[in-house]
Every structure is written in C-alpha cells, then in structure tokens.
Design brief:
The complex is a heterodimer of chains A (340) and B (561). The relative contact order of chain A is 0.11. The longest helix of chain A is centred in the first third of the chain and has 57 residues. Chain A is mainly alpha-helical. Chain A contains eight helices and one strand, in the order αβααααααα. Helix content of chain A is 71%, strand content 1%. By secondary structure, chain B is α+β, with helices and mostly antiparallel strands. Chain B has three domains: 100 residues, no CATH class; 125 residues, 2-Layer Sandwich (Double Stranded RNA Binding Domain); 248 residues, no CATH class. In chain B, the strands form five sheets. In chain B, strands 4, 6, 10, 11, 12, 21 and 22 form a seven-stranded antiparallel β-sheet that branches. In chain B, strands 13, 14, 15, 18, 19 and 20 form a six-stranded antiparallel β-sheet that branches. In chain B, a hairpin with a 7-residue loop joins strand 8 and strand 9. The longest helix of chain B is centred in the N-terminal third of the chain and has 30 residues. The radius of gyration of chain B is 38 Å and the shape is elongated. The two termini of chain B are 51 Å apart. The chains are: A mainly alpha (340), B alpha+beta (561). At the A-B interface, strand 1, helix 6, helix 7 and helix 8 of A face helix 2, helix 3, strand 1, strand 8 and strand 11 of B.
Chain lengths: 340, 561
Amino acid sequence: MSVDTTLASTSNSLVYSAMAVYAVALGASAFDLATLGEKVGARRRAAGRSAAPREELASQAGGVGTITVGRTTAPTGPAPLAEDGTPRKAAGIATSLTVLALLLHLGGVVTRGLSAHRAPWGNMYEFSVTGTSVVVLVYLVVLSRRDIRWLSTFVLAPVLLSLGLAVAVLYTDSAPLVPALQSFWLVIHVSIAFVSSALFVLAFSTTVLQLVQERREVQRAQGRPTGAGRFMEALPPSADLERLSYRLIAISFPLWAFTLVAGAIWAEVAWGRYWNWDPKEVWTFIIWVVYAAYLHARATGGWGGRRAAYLSIAGFVCLMVNYGVVNVFFPGNHSYSGLS
Amino acid sequence: MTTTQERRAPVPDPPELDPAPVGLGLLGWVRWTWRQLTSMRTALLLLMLLAVLAVPGSLFPQRSIDQVRVATYFEQHPDLAPWLDRLSLFDVYSSPWFSAVYLLLFISLVGCVLPRTKVHLANLRQAPPRTPARLSRLPEHRSVEVGASPERVLDAARAVMRERRYRTAEHAGPGGPSLAGQRGELRETGNLLFHLALVGVLVAVAVGGLWGYRAQVIVPVGGPYVNNTTNLDTWDPGALVTADSLPPFSFVLDALHVSFDDDETSSQYGAPRSFSADTTLTEAPGAAPVERTIRVNEPLRAAGASVYLAGNGYAPVLTVRDGDGNPVFSQPTPFLVQDSNYTSTGVVKIPDSPTGQVGLQGIFLPTAALGADGMPASAFPDARDPVLYLTVWTGDLGLDDGVPQNVYELDTSEMTLITTGDGIPVRLRLEPGQTAELPDGLGSVTFDSLDRYAGFTVRHDPARGAALVFSLLAIAGLTASLFVPRRRVWLRAGTVAPAGSPVPGTGHTLVEVGALARSEDHGLAAEADAVLAAVLARLDEHPAPQPEQHPRQQRPEESAP
C-alpha cells in the first residue's frame, strides 16, 4: 500500500489552518480573561467596602426563631465569574473559533490517517497532532457540561505550542507502519492513552491555576497586595479549582491503568512478554504510581490540597518526560519517534 | 495504603509519627513498627520512593533487556561501570533496594486492606444509622408539607429508597417516624478489590517468573525447530522449570517473506514493511502437521507455549574445502544483523581440517556499499547486491576447553590472523556462486547461495491469564472506588402542629429529607432533590415549589415543652 501524497499534503494544510485559527481563538480568550479579570476585580473591591455591614445584617436575619423551611445547602463561596448577565463576547468568539479550529485539526488528523491507510499515530509528529486534537476535544466536551471558558487560554496556549513543535521539529512524511506497529492494539492502546493524557494535561492547567489562586487568596486574607495577574480574579476560587483537578485526574487514572494493561496485552502479543521494563513502560508505570500517590495524598490527613497538587504537577512532568524524552533519547522497544 | 476519598472536616495535622513506645519491650516495638508500616503516610512515602527508584532503570542499560548494551557500557565506562554494578544499577528491577520497596509497599497494603475488609464486612451487615435530630444541619436538607399521613409518606420513601438501591432502616423519634438509607458500599468494596487484585497481579508475575521460560532460536529457511533445550541459542528458564518440561512440538520454517520500503524519495526508505514466516507445525509427535503463519503481531500458540517472530536475517550457504578439496563445512550460516540495513556479521568455525583449526570471520552486506567511514556497509536491507567479506584465522578455536562458546563469535585469543606479506589482513570478497582460495594452502571457501533465517522467541508463562484477570479486576475495582458515591439519606415524616395551617394548600405532614456524602460527591444536592421528588410523585403530591417564601412554620419538636 503506497502513500497518497495529495491527502498527506491536504493534511498538512489543514493542520496549518487549524493553527492559525487556534492562534486567533487564543487571542480572543486571553482578551476575555483580561477584561473579565478587571471587571471581577473592580467588583470585589467595591464589595469589599460594603461586605462587613451586609454580613451583620445576615446574622441578625438568621437569629432567634427563624426557620428556613426549604432548601438549604452548604455555602459554596462567592460566584467567581461575571455572572451578572453581561455577555462575554470575546469568550463566545474564542469558543466558536476553537470549534472551527478543531474541525480543521480533526480534518488534518483524518486525512493523515487516510493518506497512509492506518491510525494517524505512528510517529511523534502524528502523535502530537492527534494528541493535541484530543486535548481540545476533551476541553470542549467538559465545556458542554459546565462553563469553563476561563480555562481556554490555558488549553489553547499549550496546544498551539505543541502543534508548533510538531510541525517545526517533529515533522515526518506520511508513511506506512513498521510491522511491529501493525496491530489493532495500536488503535486501542494509544487512543486510550490520548484521552487519558489529555485529561492529565487539563488537570495540570487547573492545578497550576489552583496553586496561583491559593497564593492570591492567602495574600488577600493577610491584607497583602496580590501582585500581578489580575486575570486570576476571573477564575474560580482555589477550592473549586482543586475539585476540578481531582475530578479530571480521577477520570484519567483508571484510563491510564487501562493504557498500561492494553499495552501489556499488546506487548505479550508482539514481544512475548507482557512486561519488559522497557523505558516507555517504566515511565508509564512511574506516571501511574505518581498519580496513585496523588490520590492517596489527597485522602491523607495533612496532605490534601497544596501538597497533593505538587504530586499532580510531578505526574505531569513525568508525562512530558515520557512523551518528549523517552521516545527520542532512550533506546528501547518504543522508539517510534520517526526522528533520526 | 487504601484510598479513601472521604473528605473530613479540617482537623489539625496529626503528629508526624506516633511517639515510639518506651519500655514496651519487643512486642511493643513490633506493634509500633507494624502500625507505622501500615499507615497511609508510610504507604504514600513508599509509593513515591517506588516511582523515584524506577527511574534509573530507564537511564542505564538493563541486563534483563539488553545484555549487549550493558557490555558496551562497561567498555565505554570501565571505571564507573563496576561501581554502578555494585549498586545493581544494571539490574534495577531485581535489585535488593527496588525489591525491598515494593515488598514493603505490598506488606503495607495487605496490612491496611485486611483490617479494612473486616470492618467493611461488618459494615455491610449493619443497619443504617439513626436519624439525626436536626436534619437541617446536614449538607443537604429539603423540606415540604404534604397532605398524606406520615405512614403513607414512609411507605413511599421505603419504595423510593429501595429503587435507588439504599439499604434502609426505620427509626422512631420525637420528630416523627423516619427512614434511614445508606448506599454506595460498592465504593469500598471496589477499593478493597483494587488493592487485593494488585496483590494478585504481583503473585501472577512471580508465578510466571518461577514456572515460565523464555528461549531464542535462529532457524534457517527450510530448517526445522524442535522444542527442546538442545536446539536453543539462548535458554532463560524460571527457577522451577526443568528442561524436560518443554512441550514436544516442532515446526518447519517453509518460507520467510520480508518487504521493505523501496521508495527512494521517502524518508522511510529501507524501513521494514512486513515480515511473515510460513511454517508447518506438528503440535505433538505423531500429530497431523498443520500450516501456520507467524507474523510480528501474530505469534504461533502451540501446546501452551508461544512462538514469536522476533527477527530475521541472512544465512549465506557456505562450503569450505580443505587443502585436498574435501568439504569440511557446508551449511547455511546465519549472520547476525548489526544495523537497520542488515549489515551482518558471522563466523565459520572449522575444528577438523587436516591443516589445523580454521576460523572465518565475515561481514555480509545484502546491498554492498561503502559506509561514511569508508568501511563496507549495506545500503538497503533487501538482497540487491549481496557481498560477503571474510578474514581468515588459524590456531586454537578454544572449542576443547569445555566452556560453552557463542557460535556467532570467534574467540581469537589463541588464533592468528592471516595477513599478506606486508601485514595487511587477507580479505576475501565473495558474491553468490563464487569461490575463493584460502591463503597458505588452507583450502577454499564457496558462497553457494543466499538463504534467510528467522529469529524466534519461544515463551511460556503459565500465569499470564491470571495476571490479565487480576489487572482487569483491579481496574474495575478502581473505577467503582472512584465513581460510586457513598451516601446517607434520611427522610422524616413529622406531624405539623394542629389543623388550621396558616398557609392554604399545605398539608399536615412535614416531610424532611437530609443527605450526607461519605465520599467525594458532586451529585448530592441532585440526589436529595430526586429522592424528595420521587416520594412526592408516589404520593401524587405537587407542593408549592418555592417553600422559602412560606411564612415560618413550627416544628413539633421545638414546640414541645
């Protein structure tokens, strides 16, 4: 089976177009975040002047003899985002453009696969292009369930960066697969790894934001200036960010376990041993152990929140090592980078 | 080391470790050590340690993966390598320190999980707890007044909670009869299953290591393979495997098909595209032979063993004649592949020539060219222009020492390289069909034809199925432990103070629902809503939807003296 070069070059054009649209979407979402941050910050300062008397009133109202019949729920903290009905035009534009860019991006992925008659993840270039499309897809899926448009900047920026790296450094011509990769386990093992990695990437973004937000909250509580980064005002409080990070990791962790097991089944079929301590296997295992430590840390007294967050960041660093370093620099059975 | 996702109210940090016992004697120390080992904090540290200690195995070459690379490392770092070796850095995953950490981790796991299993089993038999006096203090609380009697409300609630898979218990109380429901024990069941299944995986790996074996063999096209240890090139048995436990299957390699990327404009030029081996298998002596094809991702499964196509290469058919013209060697001679273009090396050992022992050392190029360094190297993996270069050695092959020798290497320590008068080694160049005279009247060597060989890996692991089952159980348990919500829901049906309710349209029974999450739970509010709605639907009641606007209601318990 030969390679369809027309389709392959169509794929390249689509990927470049997607990058251009992502770039505009990134600009729009950064603009949205900046203006929103200003607005929320201004409102908080205004509220800060009148907060004290309002709290007094509230405690009086809740005093003697009142029973609220009806729905009471635990307080969830102040609404962080501009929920005053002001339309966020820039955010809307950013989301629309992200959807458009993803369509182009997926077009690039599909034509790439069709050009070589196989799953489009046979080398580092394809892995990066397909993997970033899954990151955006997962972001949009989560977005359809809850408003996380504040996260878009922190999704699009790394995606654009990875795509830039892919086309500039990792690019490899479309070609058929070497025999070792000719297996349907390539589709199962790697596609689950994609989804799982995408969730870890999003969780990394929310974890970093969580730590920054937590620092600002502490500074604010101590009456110290919060410094630069007013856009952080537009983001949810750190406790919400922490919960979101946890949920993303909780979904990803079993998927990562499945990636490991599917990889082991494939290894048994291809190499005759389900576990070889090959560098890629080692790092996949390390990532799993680090996130397992995260889950345990979060459930252990005195380790939750901040310290667990560091483990989640460590997990992400390992993920990047596994993706960027192991394939290229460590000789092993997984050296399919396509780079020479 | 058991994961609980239960979020407790913030408590002050516990002290780092229990104070060590003073004057408790040996038993006290043992108890103290056991408690430390099985604490979550220790498990967490061991987990992190395991992750860190796994790293060096990916940085240094490992004997278990590639002995050649370890040997190369020793040559390149003659001073450093022995020290690294003393620290087991070339055998990380069987090193004492790595084993110690994972064994401690598993002991800690068992020590944590077994008591928890006991507690969990007791919990499963226990009725849901009593209804709190003030449901309004729970994280989720709903209340509404209905016309139905408390008994009817409770009947409806019982049905609803059963439907939603709550275990229920009825309690009487000053505020009225109530129903307590508890669900989500599957979360803890999954959690325990996950951890115990990990122990199962470890045991399966150990069993596979003890009773499994792995072997490698090179089979020229047309040649047979019989599954016993005498035919193997490498033999790596588990500690409890005996040579006669190999199943007696055999096969003949009928043909080997290889293809490479031949598009010269492609960056993938020369990359392998497909390998397959046609074989005729005889599963047991006397069984009818069947034809089977082995491909890279399609091993041959026979009699509990698996045969994998692990590699391939060239086996030039060579004939060596002695000085009198009598053949002393004639067979396909496998040459080991050295690079992606199949530049290969091999040797011929002739121990029984009238002119003394002779060794031939060769480089085979399927497509002859000169490499960048001016040395001969192959330019393409397929046999387009095959050329064989040989150098000739005489002396002692070292075969009589009784020490097993590598058949693909020449031990030249007791041999002399034949050179021309001015000290340049004699190098013979042969293409298929050609014959070259060996110097010094040693005879001649003929490159009759070119064959291929296949490299097979034969593997048996009695516990690989068990490892898979335990892995899948672990994932199932893990998923349950992360996503099944553990909840308690209480419903109380209290009688509202005497008739003449101030608000028209409300009833006589105050229905209160309280819900408590016992794990990370994002759906608790929705669950409280759903339980209440389902109860009301059963009662066919449609109360006013904005109870907050109602005037104040007195609850019986508060009006009681």
